[in-house]
Task: structure prediction
Amino acid sequence: MAQTTLTEVMAELAELEDPKAREVNERHGDVHGVNLSKLRALAKRLKTQQEIACRLWETDDTAARLLAILICRPKAFERDALDVMLRQARSPKVHDWLVNYAVKKSPYCEELRLAWSADQHPVIASAGWALTTERVAKKPEGLDLQGLLDVIEAQMKDAPDRLQWAMNHCLAQIGIERAEHRARVTRHRRAPGSAQGLPDVPRLHLALRSHMDHRDGPPSARSGDCLIGGHPA
Result:
């Protein structure tokens, strides 16, 4: 779709509105009524259009922002722009897609990982932990894994839900990737007072490995779409 206008794209999104999809999405905190498969099909047809992506984001519409993430050029965003966008991402799905599809491809990924991990807002901090999990899996060199485990053991059980899930995912990933830390990870998962209702490492190990074997999108993006113990990432 060459020379697509914002008005045309918003009209297409309106046509995709489905009350049943909205009902399901709203149960997960995502206020939109667009089937994600249809949204991806629209993005595939639009292809990369950075200017339209930026304008879609500015609408503050959840479906428009999800589409914006799919058609944006991640490396075109400056560090501060990505930081602002994360803080504007009130929808869980927008938050996750922004981290997985845009930030992970950005040259500012590591800088943002460090900044967000230290943020006092638990939702922002959860993005930092998601990026840390990615580093554990793909580029662990230079990470203080013992220090990460210390923080997880001290803070995870009392963390708000979204941050708790992100920290638990990182904990499991450390156990999956690093045999030398597996006993400590397993002990923590079984310790009295550990976060309740979170998946143990063996279950998550199998879920992640199965997901990695069958993913059909960019590795950095698809890893963020997996279900963690039934929780939509």
Notes: The first strand starts at residue 227 and ends at 228. The two ends are 31 Å apart (CA to CA). Confidence is low (pLDDT under 50) at residues 205-233.
